[in-house]
Amino acid sequence: MTETCVVLDIGGVLEITPETGCAQRWEERLGLSFSTVHERMSDVWQAGSVGSFSEREVHEQVAARLGLDAPQVEAFMADLWAEYLGTPNEELIAYVRGLRGSCRLGILSNSFVGARERETALYQFDELVERIVYSHEIGIEKPDPRAFETVCASLEVRPEGCLFIDDLAVNVEAAQAAGMQAHLFQDNARTITRIAVHLDAGSRVGGPLPLG
Questions:
Q1: Average pLDDT of the chain, as a whole number
Q2: In what order do the strands lie in the sheet with 5-8?
Q3: What percentage of the chain reaches a pLDDT higher than 90?
Q4: How far is CA 44 from each of CA 53, 93, 132, 184, 202, rounded to the nearest angstrom?
Q5: Strand 15-16 to strand 87-88: parallel, antiparallel, or no bridges (unpaired)?
Q6: What share of the chain is helix, strand, coil (3-state, %, to 5)?
Q7: H/E element, 104
Q8: I need a labelling partner for 178 at 20 to 30 A (CA). Which of 37, 75, 119, 144 fits?
Q9: What is the rounded (10 degree) CA torsion for 128, 129, 135, 136?
Q10: Whether residue 143 has a cis bond before it, omega within 30° of 0
Q11: What is the pLDDT of residue 210?
Q12: What is the pLDDT of residues 134-157, one digit of tens each?
């Protein structure tokens, strides 16, 4: 029987992360036109998401491109991190915590340099699952198929035994193309039901795993 596994995204799934408008507030504070932060920083954000820049280098680029002094850089990044980290999805986290020992558990997240340290401190995701695969640590982002291959390899499971949960359809489709089961997160109730169905199917020797 294929070993059963559940892999979850973080932002929008394990974390509730609505946009807070922090970039717009900084544009107003600095007298910059709308979308200036995105236009000046988009390549830096991309570099940070695949680990091409360190946190120090990100801070240097923020200072240079937005004309901020050191205290302003710290305040700006603190606002961005508050939006990035959101608040914990307590119900889903508690459910996943109850799964430990009954299946393999992992996280696959498009992330940013510094995310592991902050999410570990705030949410202890390292204690929730067995393996966390961050894009900034492997240099690959979803929906690249190599991201899904990496998380399966890290958990030592076959993709067909894994259910992947993400809030973006493009990533769900990519996971399915990589041979995984996949579920588009919309709310906790449907997600918990989908996980339960997956685990039930996996517990039946020779039973087919349902398509997600």
A1: 94
A2: 131-134, 104-109, 5-8, 162-166, 181-184
A3: 93
A4: 8, 31, 23, 29, 42
A5: antiparallel
A6: 55, 15, 30
A7: strand 104-109
A8: 119
A9: 60
A10: yes
A11: 42
A12: 999 999 999 999 999 999 999 999
- In this prediction, residue 203 carries a pLDDT of 74
Kindly report the length of the chain: 212
Decide if pLDDT at 44 tops 50: yes
Rounded to an integer, what is the distance from CA 14 to the centroid of its chain?
A: 8
Q: Which of 145, 54, 160 lies closest to 108 in space, CA to CA?
A: 145
Give domain 5-17+87-203's CATH superfamily. Answer: HAD superfamily/HAD-like (3.40.50.1000)
| pLDDT value at 211 more than 50 | no
Q: Are 142 and 148 in contact (CB under 8 A)?
A: yes
Chain Cα centroid distance, residue 133: 9
Give 202's pLDDT tier (boundaries 50, 70, 90): confident
